[in-house]
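Progress against Task 2.4 (sequence-to-structure conversion) is shown through the following example record, which the project officer requested during the mid-term review.
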Amino acid sequence: MSSSEKNSSLNYKVKLVFPDSIKIGVVVSEWHPEITEALYQGAEKILLENGIKKENIIRKNVPGSFELPIGAQSLTEKTKAVICLGCVIKGETDHYNYICEAVSKGIMDVALANKKPVAFGVLTTDNLEQAMNRAGGKFGNKGADAAYTVLKML
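Structure tokens generated for the chain above:
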């Protein structure tokens, strides 16, 4: 589904075997908390709706998006899957490009090294308005999408 469509039309239901015993890690960047908290709420809602127990959702906060891969790595030992939630907003320098590339590669490396689903729920936007539109606004909640992704992969 393109980001020009609202994701509320998606059916986020997944058939899981023994969902009440599955532990899911969620790594949340503390940078842009107004965005990342909304992403977390979306992810948590989908996990709970699919039978994951609240006590089996293991949250780990990290300072920024750059730290998401190491946070994800630390959760792979105790969970079946990990969701990474962050927000990088383009500024006036190349810093944005370096962070986005490092985060996306780092998250993929964690997934491949651990042979577990690790979802990329990181917004990479030009401005705060675009981020808000993707964190529960007019383009849905990419945190919910990331949760759905790991559940489908399981």
